[in-house]
Amino acid sequence: MTSQRTAGARPHLTWRWLRGGAALCLLLLGAEAALAQTTPAQPGPARPQRSHVRSMDDAARDMGTDPRMRNVPQEKRVATAEFVTGNMLFVLLHEMGHAHVTEMGLPVLGREEDAADGYATLTMLKLGSDFSTRVLIEASKGWFLSAERDQKKGSMLAFYDEHGLDKQRAYQIVCLMVGADSDKFKAVADWVKMPESRQDSCQGDHSNATYSWDLVLKPHRRAADQPKTKIDVVYGEGKGKMESYAKAFRAIGLLDIIAGYAAEEFTWRAPFTLEMQTCGQPDAHWDLSTHKLTLCYEMAEEFVQLYGDSVAERKTAGKMSQNELLALNIKRIRMAHGMSMENLASDAGLPMNWMSRMERGLENASVSQLEKLARALNTETVDFFVPPKNETARVMPAVKRARK
């Protein structure tokens, strides 16, 4: 069954979804509160309020109706729901970036895909809430995991694609975060091993991106006395196993929040539609010809699978022998540096025959040998004992609160 709503008027946001004050869709709640203080109240009958309370637990239960999730503990379902919702929200805002460009005729210097990523990241950074920060971390985590999954499958890097490489997109999200507040987000940058030299240049990236988006959007900001553009919201039928995702996103009102924000903040050339549909494949796109932004439920399925695979791999890694774990991690770090086995052996001053056997999990390594390898790879010996994928799959360190 398809449900349709209109966002010409901002949805009344008196309901909250996540315990502890960070709602599933609290991304724009901070902006809504600020707007409510500066926009004169309009005469007329009060709009109906939602009486029920939604939380991350509720969304997790909705997604948990999928047979594969029913035996998963509630805590893990909540973590999955947060990862999925964070990434879906980033994708939705990314496509809104495309809508801004085409509907408003905005100039783009460079790739439009990079600009859309910047719009999504900056929109959440400006809100400055704990949840918007976590959404960005989940989004960057998703790109890291996607890159690692493709590498494991042996997928060729699509250098010709209009999008940046997954890991590049992940690092750029983190870079804009660091550029916005180097003190608050340094722990995140260090966690993903972003070099200090790159962290130092991120302030320039953030400044340029913020200035550019603010400049081109300024003529399209809606004045208090201007009418709001009609933005329809459609939650299409979730067919088959997509039903649980349709139910969850309809219940938490993912599209309603973005539509309400877009109608409140900007003037648009024409009405348009935000919809979620069963598409048959993971996809999200803005269609200028139909004035419709479509986000497919299959995208959520893709993120659930991505998150589930990372958890499974961490469990498998925990059962590895120490030799196997060392071999896998040393090879992974070596390849990340673009270093051959021969060069690593030479730089570490270790025999090539031993190096070959060690990377196959057939050789023990002494503390002295591990220290030599760590120096050659510019890392710490402790990194050789981290379960694979753990650096990006596990929760990143808590960010510091901004100084007052």
List the helices and strands and how they pair.
Layout: E1 3-6, H1 29-38, H2 56-63, H3 74-104, H4 112-127, H5 130-153, H6 166-180, H7 182-191, H8 196-217, E2 231-235, H9 243-252, H10 254-265, E3 272-277, E4 284-287, E5 292-296, H11 297-318, H12 322-336, H13 341-348, H14 352-358, H15 367-376, H16 390-393
Parallel strand pairs: 2-3, 3-5
Antiparallel strand pairs: 1-2, 4-5
How would you explain this protein's 3D organization?
There is one protein chain. The chain is mostly helical and 404 residues long. The protein folds into two domains: 3-38 and 54-311, no CATH class; 320-393, 434 Repressor (Amino-terminal Domain), CATH 1.10.260. 55% of the residues lie in helices and 6% in strands. Strands 1-2-3-5-4 form a five-stranded mixed beta sheet. Helix 2 (56-63) packs antiparallel against helix 9, helix 3 (74-104) crosses helix 11 (297-318) and helix 5 (130-153) packs antiparallel against helix 6 (166-180). Mean pLDDT is 77; it is low at 5-55, 390-395 and 400-404.
